[in-house]
Amino acid sequence: MTSVQVDKKHGDGSGAEGTGATEDGSGEGYQRGLGARQIQMIAIGGAIGTGLFLGAGKGISKAGPSLILAYAIAGLVIFFIMRALGELLMYRPVSGSFSEYAREFLGPFFGFVTGWTYWLFWVVTGITEVTAASEYMQYWTKDATGWINQPQWVFALIFTVILFGANLISVKLFGELEFWFSMVKVTAIIGMILICAGILTIGFSDAGDTASVSLLWSEGGFFPQGIGSTLMTLQMVMFAFLAVELVGVTAGESKDPKTVLPKAINTVPWRIAVFYVGALIMILSVVPWTHFQPGVSPFVAAFEKMGLGVGAAIVNFVVLTAALSSCNSGMYSTGRMLRDLALNGQAPKFFTKLTPRGLPLAGTSFSAALMLVGVWINYQWPGEAFNYVVSFATISGMWAWIMILCSQIKYRRMSDAGLLPKSSFRAPGAPWTSWFALGFIGLVIVLMGIDEDARISLVCAPFWALLLGVSYLVMKARNPEKFAAKK
């Protein structure tokens, strides 16, 4: 999650329709530069963000230890979503991913809406994350002197330029950055789990005398605030998993998508079990849930309880890398989404152009420019209007999940009827698991409407939908052939 709240021939994945990828990726013009190691870490990093390192404190204060159950249930739903995406990816691994699938199975309008909405999601995310990263830098520079002591906008500019440059050098460099960003997050969580395990077994540190697994139920029970409060945390829990779908956007640039992508998707259960459920079980067994507060990282609170003063510095470094990772992913995905839209006549044609290295220069440059403008607006007018745009990122991210599930349900129906070849990576239990996931997302949206803090996301959505609807009708009237339904 972010800190503010990624054709003419059907076959088993080697063919493509229109703009889809061929086996070597030449159908789209991209280079298959992402290896198994990088894809695995992109998949892991997409499921771990500042939603865990910072946002979990608010969830713990609202629901207590029952937040663990909320993460487990939501994690199961995320696995259903990712297996649905995996089935589609093995049917046709294309860089447009769920936008392309929505266009094929649900119609050109849904492909248009999905592509532009997911693009907006990452642009807004990039703005907020690079802003957050520059704020995190103040921890290290606020008492410094000389060239290190710079205003926030300078760091925002530096980070944006560096990540933009990295995304224009090669897709492999993007993968390397994501690999090391994810490695920092994974190392931090595993380190915390090991420290907590040592406290529980050996009893060292200031928390050793009181640490016990019984803290999960002895401080007011497992549901200390009631089941209703636990339900209300489901929205922030689901938001923590936003960007887990980014691995689907890498399909057109994976060296061996038929092997690498299924392995990455199948790691979702243990990733969630270890990095979310496992980490929270260990932390809440060392520190009573009553010690956590909204806005305070549970990792920082746990370090302080253990008497480890370096906790704040460690977590600040981790959330800095998490923010940069999210911005880096935004740079990557926005260029691909704009090119996919342009190839289908749903965006300006110049977005189709690639560099000799197979990189979407125009789309990435345009998105990066908007991120810089957004950062400037955020600094100049940090008011409600900007907050409304930021809050919309949450509902737009879930729209991608809805499109994945609906596309997979339609594809499964057609493949079972023999109208399309069956995927080599079929989702177990589908389509029932996909229907269950859709129902769960519907419940989360209802809860968002009930929660006053999250309601603004639903208020912003109709305005964006109206803009897209009008734009679609205008573009379809000008070029009806490009907007015809695919057969």
TrEMBL record:
It comes from the Bacteria. PROSITE patterns: AMINO_ACID_PERMEASE_1 (PS00218). Belongs to the amino acid-polyamine-organocation (APC) superfamily. Amino acid transporter (AAT) (TC 2.A.3.1) family. Its main location: membrane. It is found in: Cell membrane. The chain crosses the membrane at residues 41-60, 66-85, 105-133, 153-174, 186-205, 225-247, 268-287, 307-327, 359-379, 385-406, 432-450, 456-475. This is Amino acid permease. Residues 1-28 are annotated as: Disordered. It is a multi-pass membrane protein. Residues 39-480 form the Amino acid permease/ SLC12A domain. Residues 1-12 have a biased composition (Basic and acidic residues). Keywords: Amino-acid transport, Cell membrane, Membrane, Transmembrane, Transmembrane helix, Transport.
